[in-house]
Write a structure and sequence with these properties.
This protein has helices spanning 2-27, 29-63, 69-86, 90-100, 102-119. With 130 residues, it is an all-alpha fold. Helix 2 (29-63) packs antiparallel against helix 3.
Length: 130
Amino acid sequence: MPLRLFLLFTLVPVLELALLIKIGTHIGVGPTVAVVILTGFAGAILAKHQGFKALNSIKSQLQDGIIPADELLSGAFVLAGALLLLTPGFVTDTLGLCCLVPPTRRLMKIPVKKWLKRHIDVHFDSPDGF
């Protein structure tokens, strides 16, 4: 696990930096910076909208007595997407936007759900029989 984290925190920034330099040489510094700022701004708006949507869905399901597992996972993806958009770069912005857009988020949740089912075993034991 420490090796994975080391690679994540070193390779991703190096990849982002290389990509920013490469794109900057093709379209210029100003447009490159503008794209990074615009994606961050658009992502913040989308994160706010999708975050409130997920929160309202969670509240609604809780009021109906349903455990909102899928909505909680959506909320986690929205949070991850917002955090990725805070990191300047094209790769993290693309991944962050994918976490925020509902159709791509649904596709991304499939392997996460499979992983969770394999690694988490939930049992409810209650002294009053519920």
